[in-house]
Amino acid sequence: MDTFISGQVAIAYDDHNPEGTGPPLVLVHGHPFDRSMWAPQVEHVGGEGRRVIVPDLRGYGRSTVVPGKTPLQTFAQDIAGLLDHLDVAEIVLGGLSMGGQIVMEFHRLFPDRLCGLVLADTAAQAETEEGRRVRNAMADRLLREGLGGYAEEVLDRMLAPAGIRRFPAVAEHVIGMMRRTPPEGAAAALRGRAERPDYMASLSRVRVPTLIVVGGDDEFTPIGDARLMHEVIPGSALVVIEDTAHMPNLERPAEFNMALSRFLDSIPRKP
């Protein structure tokens, strides 16, 4: 693990195969997880000789916990700062759930730094009034109670129930990440996402190859959300991984990795 200092915040990250041929793949975790959620992809893509960079977002994992409210813009700027620190100009940027929304925000702010996008189990629409209420109420609850109860409640929506039974080690990994997440960091991110803008207009201006992946049984961001992005992003590819919920990269890593490799192979590698 390495650390990048941005102001008063330390961002933890792993930089795999820094000498790999480009463009580097940067993967952004979702809420309430950490960079370890990408372990199967790091192993697979890194094994193909590519550079893979995986940060812990501020407030999560080994990065500095910042209470209050963390907008998506702040997360995107942290990633841009990390790229500057690593002297990386262009990347393929991927994210799942909240991570996917950070990818959309990064595209809005820094489109010239992108040569590909991966949007997994995420949604582009603006937050609704009801959604804002729910996210702020959940932030209050996590500060009061911690993430233990929440983790138990949502595990069978993060992973398909059948997957929990078949892959207990995966379930333990997912619930462990949730339980370890600092409540202050998770609450700050929830408050920031409660103000999420609509990304549909900016996605219509995407001019780089884009892969959209969704679990067939995802309740948080259903197939309809993925299809909406697929319709608006020119030339995008849509892959539905059946019998998975919100985290197909962990439930069906072989299928997810196959789609990811096929997509990355379509983007020219620069020396």
From TrEMBL:
Keywords: Hydrolase. Coiled coil: none annotated. Residues 23-253 form the AB hydrolase-1 domain. InterPro entries: AB_hydrolase_1, AB_hydrolase_fold, AB_hydrolase_sf, Epox_hydrolase-like. The keyword Hydrolase applies. It comes from the Bacteria. Pfam families: Abhydrolase_1. The keyword Hydrolase applies. GO terms for molecular function: hydrolase activity. This is Alpha/beta fold hydrolase. It comes from Sphaerisporangium dianthi.
